[in-house]
Design brief:
It is a single chain. The chain has 13 helices and 27 strands. The longest helix has 18 residues. The protein is globular and about 70 Å long. A hairpin with a 4-residue loop joins strand 7 and strand 8.
Length: about 575
């Protein structure tokens, strides 16, 4: 059902009319469901034009942000909008001409607007390989390094792409005598290099990125779908045994899929690819039907329907090896292929047939979901899994909703010297789950995912992925990074007028909670402390968690209000 051959390419993220421009993410809706409106956007094609754009913003005191030809950041980091309208966007969509490969020194220097797939193909053609890459290839090089994008590995330099950077050029505001903007070229020996590696677009505009390479190699991949009984005890051993290990956990089905993924010699037989099932193009009709079915089940509080769908999805993944292909199709394990064909995927991006698309394309009313991504110190992750299992075991069917998507994807990244990178070896868990069409529509079993979310970010102190998550995940995030103040000091040095800051990016980076309002907890804009933050009129009340008692979640009840109703005498203090 899920496999097709052609796609309708995504729309550009910036769309303009006579009233100005709007910036959208790939789902068509920001976390707060408010538009990001700016007066204009400029499209530099060279580094000098990029510098002139920054100079113009500086000279005219405009708030400015950078966006690429893609837009897969879920928080509003790229939105410069202000109430006064004095803002602009710089797009790197046309700044994408230069890929300079230094085969002797095993490095490549690229324009920041270059797409990841184009970079990988050029490097592989030169007989080299990029070791680390995110699983989704629809990103620019500048965007992926600035937000901490990663694959999975505890080996070598690790799975985070920014830890493979060996040089970087940054365009920052400057004095009038310097032309209002200047290019700063950074190397690892430079004091501010570790701030610039993961900068969230707050320090300036990345113009060039230099990445380390290795001689071209192949990988051999197999999945082992098995019982989940020992996942919390063996995840570290798994990461140490396989260079590109990951684990996908389907909690409602008590199943874990362990990815056995290591290098093999270049002369090993096989020309396989990894065309991840979730990133293949789908029939628009099928995507719309799946979404309509999921909405019907959610509105009807149908656990049985969700669990039947989850079982079907898992069955298909086993059958087609999650998108691995020995040739045209999957014929058996292991699947061996070159690094460039195995490390990332996104085939729904490329063809133009009008009857197929990426399943989440907002033009088709297809899949619409949240994506929570939590990054744990490796030593704490096992206890998190144990708590989630306790919650799961109270009623396993409550977890079918996440297994309809991709369960819990568990990956591994090494400790980083980047100020906004991970200070210790870490485990990353991603999970997607249903989002309602309307902000004030409660979701069936939303309390389960709110409790898992709060377990991760507050009980175990997990850090949110900078480019994903609902707003509540970023509460007090600055306290979780020991070098956060060093990053802020570099920002003050490079951007003293805060041209590259906005109310949206400040809300994420400084972990600010907005004003609480009716229904704010339904979409993760707040943590409920009163019933009105949920949807009491529809039977959803603010209640403590079932396993993590300190959590406050919106749970459905057909009977009386919760202890957090106004006038109940309960403690209304915010978490």
């Amino acid at each position: 059902m899920l496999i097709s051959v052609q796609a309708m390419p995504p729309e550009p993220p910036v769309r303009c009319d006579k009233n100005g421009c709007n910036l959208y993410n790939s789902y068509g809706v920001w976390g707060d469901r408010k538009d990001c409106h700016v007066q204009n956007v400029t499209y530099p094609t060279t580094e000098e034009e990029l510098r002139l754009a920054v100079a113009y913003a500086n000279q005219n005191k405009l708030k400015v942000k950078v966006v690429s030809q893609f837009s897969h950041t879920i928080p509003k980091l790229a939105c410069p909008a202000t109430s006064s309208g004095n803002s602009m966007l710089i797009s790197t969509a046309k700044y994408n001409s230069s890929i300079e490969i230094d085969a002797k020194n095993l490095a490549v220097t690229v324009d920041a607007g270059i797409g990841l797939r184009r970079l990988i193909d050029a490097v592989e053609e030169a007989g080299l390989s990029l070791v680390a890459a995110p699983y989704w290839e629809g990103v620019s090089v500048g965007g992926l390094v600035s937000t901490g994008a990663h694959g999975s590995s505890w080996w070598g330099k690790g799975g985070a792409v920014h830890d493979h950077i060996v040089g970087l050029s940054l365009i920052v505001p400057a004095k009038q005598s310097e032309g209002f903007a200047k290019i700063v070229k950074l190397e690892p020996k430079d004091q501010i290099f570790n701030a610039a590696k993961v900068s969230l677009g707050l320090l300036g505009v990345i113009s060039k990125v230099k990445l380390s390479l290795e001689p071209r190699f192949k990988r051999s991949i197999a999945y082992n779908f098995t019982d989940d009984a020992q996942i919390e005890n063996i995840y570290m051993d798994h990461a140490k045994k396989y260079e590109f290990a990951d684990i996908t956990w389907y909690p409602s089905k008590h199943t874990s899929a362990y990815r056995y993924d290591n290098r093999v010699p270049l002369n090993a037989s096989g020309d396989g690819t990894y065309d991840f099932l979730g990133f293949q193009s789908n029939s628009i009709l099928i995507s719309k039907s799946i979404r309509a079915t999921e909405k019907t089940m959610d509105n009807g509080r149908s656990l049985g329907g969700k669990c039947t769908m989850a079982a079907s999805v898992l069955g298909v993944k086993k059958l087609v090896a999650n998108g691995l292909k020995n040739g045209l199709i999957f014929t058996g394990y292991p699947v061996t292929g070159s690094q460039g064909k195995m490390q990332t995927s996104g085939s729904c991006l490329y063809s133009t047939a009008a009857d197929n698309s990426c399943a989440w394309d907002p033009r088709i009313n297809g899949l619409f979901f949240y994506e929570t991504t939590a990054i744990f110190p490796a030593s704490k992750f096992g206890d998190f899994i144990r708590d989630v299992k306790k919650l799961r075991d109270l009623k396993p069917d409550n977890f079918c909703g996440v297994d309809i998507y991709n369960g819990f994807l568990i990956r591994f990244i090494r400790a980083s010297e980047a100020y906004l990178g991970q200070p210790e070896d870490s485990v990353v868990v991603d999970f997607n789950y249903f989002r309602a069409d309307d902000a004030l529509t409660p979701r069936f079993n939303e309390d389960v995912w709110e409790e898992v979310e709060q377990l991760a970010f507050f009980k175990y102190g997990a850090k949110p992925h900078w480019a994903k998550n609902r707003n509540l995940a970023f509460l007090d995030v600055q306290k979780k990074y020991p070098n956060f103040n060093k990053f802020v000091a570099v920002k003050r040095q490079l951007d003293p007028q805060n041209l590259f800051s906005s109310e949206w990016s400040d809300g994420v980076v400084f972990g600010k909670e907005g004003v609480k309002s009716d229904g704010c907890a339904l979409e993760g804009q707040c943590i409920c402390s009163e019933d009105r933050h949920c949807s009491p009129g529809k039977g959803y009340f603010c209640t403590p968690g079932l396993v993590y008692k300190e959590a406050r979640v919106c749970r459905y009840s057909s009977s009386s209000p919760s202890p957090f109703s106004v006038g109940s005498g309960s403690d209304k203090n915010d978490l």
